[in-house]
Design goal:
Blueprint lengths: L2 H5 L6 E4 L3 E5 L3 E6 L2 E4 L2 E6 L3 H15 L8 E3 L13 H4 L3 E5 L2 E2 L2 E8 L2 H10 L1 E2 L2 E2 L9 E7 L2 E2 L11 H7 L2 H23 L3 E13 L2 E5 L8 E5 L15 H9 L13 H19 L7
Antiparallel strand pairs: 1-2, 2-3, 3-7, 4-5, 6-7, 8-14, 9-12, 9-13, 9-14, 10-11, 14-15, 14-16
């Protein structure tokens, strides 16, 4: 990706490079470019996952277009013809992996919805008997489905690790009506995705949403229901008490954890076989989610 070249374009007022996304400030709009970089445990790996950025971008565009009846979002276009003219020459870098969006004021919380007991929630439950600081029934097992999805927000850190907080903490840190709106819309989005993907034999174990404001309006922003922001499980391999096969970057997390990496920078080099297996899982998720089986990668 030619971050430096695009950053220097006349239309770009400012630019940021995140762990996976490059963001270009165009005034009242942003251009978000999703790279092939991959991170786990808040650390970026030296390897690229070929076509990962296009897959994530395509899935987010799909869900922005199909959930706007639930909540408005910041998506404008993913067509280069709608981009500033001086970006047209960067077609190779931008096509398929970028989107033009409205600029919002980001609400500094990640809105996490959990449908199944796994990940950090499972670790918390084993130690404390709680999830998101909420007391839970005794005797729950790994991967067990909750009777109703749980809303377990976290702070959105500028650097370092996000902090898991309770919904009560969130209510104390912001306007209660906004917090309630975010919770309800997050659960509604989760239920929409869970029902849709259940028909494709995918279980949405958990996911996170981010929101921003323009005036008094709250919009869905960032990425939506991608393999980077969600846990997607293969329904055919689902069994309570075990970690199911996934279509997301949990495969990377499991590999580097088993390798003995201490989860501190720098991240280790990934074997080529792991890179290609990860790519394969992302492509599978794209096809199952969007129904687009014709696209060639």
């Amino acid at each position: 990706m030619t971050f430096a070249k695009i950053s220097a374009l006349h239309s770009v007022k400012h630019a940021w490079q995140g762990k996976v996304r490059d963001i270009y400030d165009l005034g009242d709009k942003l251009l978000i470019v999703t790279s092939d970089r991959i991170s786990a445990f808040d650390v970026v790996f030296p390897n690229l996952i070929p076509d990962k950025g296009k897959i994530l971008n395509g899935i987010s565009v799909y869900f922005f277009q199909t959930t706007k009846d639930i909540i408005a979002n910041h998506f404008i276009s993913d067509s280069l013809s709608d981009y500033p003219k001086d970006m047209q020459e960067h077609k190779a870098e931008l096509e398929g992996r970028s989107m033009l969006v409205r600029k919002t004021r980001v609400i500094p919380f990640e809105c996490i919805v959990r449908g199944y007991l796994t990940g950090s929630a499972w670790n918390e439950y084993k130690k404390m008997g709680t999830i998101g600081n909420m007391m839970m029934p005794d005797g729950m097992k790994e991967s067990q489905k909750f009777p109703n999805p749980l809303f377990t927000p976290s702070t959105k850190a500028e650097s370092g690790h996000d902090e898991n907080i309770s919904y009560r903490d969130m209510l104390n840190r912001m306007d209660a009506k906004i917090a309630s709106f975010l919770k309800n819309k997050s659960i509604e989005l989760y239920n929409h995705a869970h029902d849709k993907l259940f028909a494709e034999k995918i279980l949405v174990a958990d996911t996170k949403f981010e929101f921003g404001t323009i005036g008094h309006d709250i919009l869905l922003i960032d990425e939506v229901l991608t393999p980077d922001s969600s846990r997607f499980w293969d329904m055919d391999g689902y069994e309570i008490g075990k970690t199911p096969l996934s279509y997301d970057k949990q495969y990377i997390r499991d590999f580097v954890t088993d390798s003995g990496w201490d989860k501190n920078p720098p991240a280790p080099e990934l074997p080529e076989a792991v890179v290609m297996k990860t790519r394969e899982k992302y492509i599978q998720s794209y096809k199952l989610i969007t129904g687009d089986t014709e696209r060639k990668w």
